[in-house]
């Protein structure tokens, strides 16, 4: 017998679990689901694994978490055998790693590539989800897990005349797989976030001229990337169990590093400068952990911001350009801090121009380029480094309908509401990996992914054992968690910036601080306590005896 969906499209196949996305979350999830003996299918819209690292192939793309830490910990053999070549791995190496993992654990047979999930609808009569894909097929599953990533919905602003531009356009988040040769071309880059900051220096080495359109300057710290020595790798590998434990259980952001014990104002200005100098020379995100109160106390934060502004003034030769590059409108770190290789230095090149569009926004694109401040700038190619509809954008692309036909879009009209970032009231058996309300983008994503996958798979095992048919967040637990996420966020300086954490980069998106800022260590304890307390805050119903699914 074939299971029939309400609109009478026959269900092609039924699974215990359908996973959306074959990035780092989807891959590990599939491995664990198989380990539980569950039938699972992963749908992936790209033609390969790797998620973010599959799509973001722009020149200079590189991770800002160190390679020895931005890697899976679930398999000791894998972490012992894989050799990273650089302190911060470049995109091709991370993608190679993702492919290695897919092959090593033989994941591909259960991943369906080039397939976009268009809808997921919960059927209250069977307690199952019907998942539709863009090839018109329908599938049935008891559980659906969204492993769609937090920064996967690349966004090109709706500029007037966009389609009229005769040259080539590229988005950093959807870079052509064959690469782009900018030799001899006049290139416009719109945006100055992490993607722009990494790509501009590389594009400038190739192009005839690069014009950068900046709306808001960003704080960037030198990456000081370098090759990894065998000794350094060995020191990590010898101590991996303890180092991974510290990343999970003791750190705020899933990264092992020296923990500051002092506030910035406890040091004299001279001592503070020494601390910042050391961090600047060492390079990396740890700069923001120079002191323990940079995210909390504006006066402390000002000392770090002022230090970086001073560095920009030292590096950039034209004082007017240096001033434009110095961020002044938000505390340092409250927009995601960037790591760069010679970003500020690039503005000393003769073939790079910075245009401030804060007060003179891009008016329109034209066949030859774009207009801002009443002048037309002509280009052969334009790069949109304009970011993502972050954290909720990839869910919004799927028509998700829970109990009584409630859409996730309408439920989240005033901002995302989740319990623990894992589940949503009214949407039974639907899980989110690194969803809004969890530490996600504020952490080493792989640490957070592994924690969510481990928690969810342990939960699925529990549900099976107890014969439970549905599990969903209760409204009360969800409301309490949303209030807690907000309360913690507003104790910090983060909400002071117009950042994508706040949804501020997308016109009309509700201003809500989306990730949980309490730290991965605390968050893990909360999740574990909930599971140990018989999944407090979740409502469960027994398994229905419904005839389902033959092929
Ligand atoms: P982003 O940080 O959101 O930056 C987008 C840029 O485009 C901003 O400068 C923004 O200006 C500008 N922009 C957006 N709309 C515009 C408009 N209509 N007119 C003019 N300018 C506009 O995006 P991203 O650089 O792709 O980075 C997103 C996140 O991805 C990062 O924060 C990071 O978490 C992650 N990422 C990580 C790495 C890494 O690991 N190293 C690299 C790349 C990305 P405003 O600031 O004024 O909005």
What does this structure look like?
The protein contains 16 helices and 20 strands. It has 551 residues and is of the alpha/beta class. It has two domains: 3-153 and 390-542, FAD/NAD(P)-binding domain, CATH 3.50.50.60; 162-232 and 245-384, no CATH class. The strands form five sheets. Strands 1, 2, 3, 4, 5, 6, 17 and 18 form an eight-stranded mixed sheet that branches. The termini are close together. Bound molecules: NADP nicotinamide-adenine-dinucleotide phosphate. NADP nicotinamide-adenine-dinucleotide phosphate (NAP) is lined by residues 62-64, 151, 157, 172, 190-196, 198, 215-216, 336, 339, 357, 362, 385-388, 441, 500, 505.
Secondary structure blueprint with pairings:
Elements: E1 11-20, H1 24-35, E2 40-43, H2 52-55, H3 76-81, H4 91-104, E3 111-112, E4 117-123, E5 128-133, E6 138-146, E7 168-171, E8 186-190, H5 194-206, E9 209-214, E10 220-222, H6 230-238, H7 240-249, H8 269-282, H9 298-315, H10 319-325, E11 338-340, H11 343-346, E12 352-356, E13 362-365, E14 369-372, E15 375-378, E16 381-384, H12 393-396, E17 399-401, H13 408-411, E18 430-432, H14 445-466, E19 468-473, H15 475-489, H16 520-532, E20 538-542
Parallel strand pairs: 1-2, 1-6, 2-3, 4-17, 6-18, 7-16, 8-9, 8-16, 9-12, 10-11
Antiparallel strand pairs: 4-5, 5-6, 13-14, 14-15, 19-20
Helix pairs in contact: 1-14, 9-10, 14-16
The structure holds NADP nicotinamide-adenine-dinucleotide phosphate.
